[in-house]
Structure formats: structure tokens, C-alpha cells
TrEMBL record:
It is found in: Membrane. The chain crosses the membrane at residues 65-84. GO terms for molecular function: transmembrane transporter activity. SUPFAM superfamilies: MFS general substrate transporter. This is Uncharacterized protein. The keyword Cell membrane does not apply. One of its GO terms (cellular component) is membrane. It is a multi-pass membrane protein. It comes from Rhipicephalus sanguineus. InterPro entries: MFS_trans_sf (IPR036259). It comes from the Eukaryota. Its main location: membrane. Keywords: Membrane, Transmembrane, Transmembrane helix.
Length: 109
């Protein structure tokens, strides 16, 4: 059940990365995506350490504090995404790929 419920969790990352690829220049996309990949690798480890420390600190007076902190971080992230989407909604236009790039690469036999 966890796998089925967790399927949509990656869709937010796909949307953010797609939007970022339209906001930065073609020569900067690789740098931005490599930063995001590094960030995706480090944040779960640091987040677990910080949330566990916060829970151990607050267990005596408010054991639900880590959940409120996580909700606050999520709320801030969603607000920033909504702000960036609203600001750049008119300025980012979809561009079709050039025809020579749209042809699939040949398969070597």
C-alpha cells in the first residue's frame, strides 16, 4: 500500500525541474540539475538527523513539534513554488524542439 500511495510523491519534483529548466539558460541547466541531485542526496540524511534531534529535545513538553516543523517547511516550499509560478507564468513559453533534434538516434547493431 505504501508503494501505491507514494507514487505521486515524485511528481512534484518533475514539475519543479521542468519549470527550472525553462527559467535558466541552456548552458546552466546541467549545473542546476547537478546541484539539485546533490541536494536530493544530502537533505534526507541531514533532515533525519535534525528531526530526530528536535524530537528528542521536545519529547517532554511537545512530542508533535517535529511534525509542525515539517509542515511549516512544506508550507514555505509550496508558497515559494506558487510565487515563482505566478511571477513567471506569462514569461515562460513552451518551445518546440528543432526538427533535427526530434529524430530518434540510430540503434547500433
Amino acid at each position: 500500500m505504501h508503494c501505491v500511495a507514494g507514487i505521486p510523491t515524485f511528481l512534484g519534483q518533475v514539475g519543479v525541474r521542468t519549470h527550472l529548466s525553462k527559467l535558466v539558460g541552456q548552458d546552466e541547466v546541467g549545473k542546476v540539475f547537478s546541484f539539485l541531485a546533490s541536494f536530493d542526496a544530502v537533505v534526507p540524511v541531514l533532515g533525519e538527523i535534525l528531526i530526530t534531534s528536535l524530537f528528542n529535545w521536545s519529547i517532554g513538553f511537545f512530542p508533535g513539534l517535529p511534525y509542525l516543523v515539517a509542515a511549516g517547511i512544506t508550507f514555505i516550499s509550496a508558497g515559494l513554488i506558487a510565487y515563482v509560478t505566478k511571477i513567471h507564468q506569462e514569461g515562460v513559453m513552451y518551445e518546440d524542439m528543432p526538427k533535427e533534434d526530434a529524430v530518434p538516434a540510430p540503434i547500433n547493431d
